[in-house]
Amino acid sequence: MSTEEALKSQFPQAGLVFSQFRDNHRIGVPAAQLMDILTFLKNVHHFDMLAELTAVDYLEYEGSKDRFGVVYVLVNTQSGERLVLKTHVNDPDPVLPSVYPLWKAADWLEREVFDMFGISFSGHPDLRRILSPDEFTAFPLRKDYPLKGRGERHNFPVLTRSDG
Amino acid sequence: MPFEVSELAEMDAPDKEYLWTLNFGPQHPATHTTLRLILTLDGETVVNAVPHIGYLHSGFEKLGEHLDFNQYVTIVDRMNYISPLHNEISWHHAVEKLLGIELTPRCKYLRTILAELMRIQDHLLNTGTCALDLGGFTAFLYFFQQRELIYDIVETASGQRFHTSYTRVGGVAFDVNNAWVDKVRSFVKGFGPVHAEVHRLLTRNRIFIERVKGIGYLSAEDCINMGVTGPLARASGVLRDLRKDEPYLAYADLDFKVIAAKDGDCYARYLVRMQEMLESIKIIEQCIENIPAGPVNVDAGTKAVIPAKPSVYRSIEGLIQHFEVMMPNRGFPTPKEEIYAATESPNGELGYYIVGDGSPRAYRARTRPPSYIHFAVFPQIIKNHQLSDVVAVLGSLNIIAAELDR
Q: Has residue B1 got a pLDDT over 50?
């Protein structure tokens, strides 16, 4: 039985959206069902590798209803099958369950999404900023963050040699 | 690996006061690039390591949303600057998949040769500097001389030694000539003896083996669970290589082996990389004698492609198309779709997640950088090793900070 049929019979009420573009098999998943479906895919269908976890800010995307999309790329290392799962979260409080208990690879990947988009992951053991400094307050990859201009750097305290 | 609260409390306990903290980096010759580790040491044993990254973060992905598909090549170049051309090939692989462009056979072979040259270039630097950090200077010099030859080959093709910006949507910037083919041939001929010499210097060298054998062990299950790919995973016995599993470019036609080991330590990684270089030479040998004739760029009827210079200068259609592709306010239509496409870079799975919104710019250009995923593994595998092993493990992971931080 293919993964698609299995998911359909296991989660008939979930409202999964299946599609294909080139060789990407994609599934749109509601955020509420995300954890159940990922657990099912990992434990029953042997999708044992989380190849990629990233987010997209759809603020300026034509025809988009939701603010953020979070993308999971799963790989079955035995059969080589790949799945691209996408779920949506919205302002004011974008939260998703952390998949760290399933794949340790999610540790830094979720921290990066948190750092760049401000989407938090409940249950993550150590959700801190990773690429930008801890004092940073904005989320740079959101679409309402400008490409250039006077940045946060100007607000940092200046330490002179005599202070040290 | 996160810093767990219970561990912190344990270290603060009065009877653990002898533990001391060492700041390693961000400017340290053995980190090679700008990254920082905070090590907690018990004598010389590493009890805990906390990586702090982001020193080279320069917003590449944000830039990717403002530059068009051809312009962004100059940025992806600068991510993994040990094998710059491979990033370009990966990036345009993803873009062409989004646009649905099928490359010409000549371009496929040309890109395959360049990709494999980049794999050799990466492994040369990695094994060379790994030996250098552990005190073996000669191997490093021998390998860097070979890297110099690869720079020459790349310069002949693109006009630049390092940040080549050579690929374009649907092809490459310039076709190669016979002088280039001769250079590749002579490189392939001369590489074997140098490789054998370094093999004799290091592989059974007792000093080298004692520094790397059994160090930095990573099991196959951990590799898969933590997303580790490429030579690191293959050194732990994970038989996964995108060139075989999801063939792209000309790899489906070629005869080559996937190199793997079982031990999962630094020595196994060294052996895998050494052997992979020979496999890459085999691939180049097969390709260079069979480069198909014909155009290197796809037909200019595809609106996304920059037309050849003669047609720009001599025909109005060529001129118009050149204008359309080059002007920032013109461009070509792209599908309103999203795609994830990955290639087997020298370091592991290098993927791009591109969201197209109909314009010739990516709405989102996400890179899946192998270094980033691999560095997350570091705190786990360095635990209970000696301080001097930090250098050996960092060397074998091949962390490139520009790709790590983007």
A: no
Closest approach of B6 to chain A, Cα-based (Å): 12
Distance from CA of A14 to the nearest CA of B (A): 23
Give residue B164's domain range.
60-100+103-297+335-405
3-state helix, strand, coil in chain B (%, to 5): 50, 15, 35
Helix segments in B203-229, DSSP class H: 206-212, 220-225
B154 or B308, which is more confident?
A: B154
Residues of B in contact with A50 (CB under 8 A): 227
Residue where the block lists tokens 């076709």: B175
Question: Could you tell me whether strands B348-356 and B362-368 are parallel, antiparallel, or unpaired per DSSP bridges?
Answer: antiparallel
Q: B192-207: buried (b, 16+ CB within 10 Å) or exposed (e) per residue?
A: eebbeebeeebeeeee
CA distances to B120, B131, B319 from B204, in Å:
22, 13, 61
Q: Which residues does B139 contact at the CB level (< 8 Å), separation at least 6?
A: B127, B128, B131, B132, B198, B201, B202
Query: pLDDT tens digits, chain A, 164 residues: what are they?
Result: 688 888 888 888 878 888 888 888 899 999 888 898 899 888 888 898 999 999 999 988 888 888 899 999 999 988 888 999 999 998 888 999 999 999 999 999 999 999 999 999 998 888 888 888 888 888 888 888 887 765 666 666 778 888 76
CATH number, domain with residue B241: 1.10.645.10
| Chain B residues within 8 A of A140 when measuring between CB atoms | 59, 62
**Sequence-distant contacts of B144-147: CB under 8 A, at least 24 apart:** B145/B194, B146/B120, B146/B187, B146/B190, B146/B191, B146/B194, B147/B121
Min CA distance, B236 vs chain A (Å)?
Answer: 14
CATH code, domain carrying A137: 3.30.460.80
What is the structure's pLDDT at B173? Answer: 86
pLDDT digits (tens, 9 = 90+) for B155-171: 998 888 888 889 988 88
B-chain residues near A23 (CB < 8 A):
97, 246
How far apart, in whole angstroms, are the C-alpha atoms of residue B22 and residue B49?
10
Domain assignment present for B72: yes
Tally of structural domains, chain B: 1
**Is the residue at B308 inside a domain?**
no
Domain-embedded: residue B325: no
- State the pLDDT at residue B279: 92
Q: What is the pTM of this model?
A: 0.89
The phi-psi region of residue A148 (left if phi > 0; otherwise alpha if psi is between -120 and 50; otherwise beta) is beta
Tell me whether residue B18 is in a domain. Answer: no
Q: Domain count for chain A, please give it.
A: 1
> Contact A133/B372, CB-based, under 8 Å?
no
The complex scores an ipTM of 0.89
Alpha carbon separation from B256 to A19, B243, B281 (Å, rounded)? 34, 10, 10
State which residues form the domain around A67.
3-163
Contact A22 B339 (CB under 8 A): yes
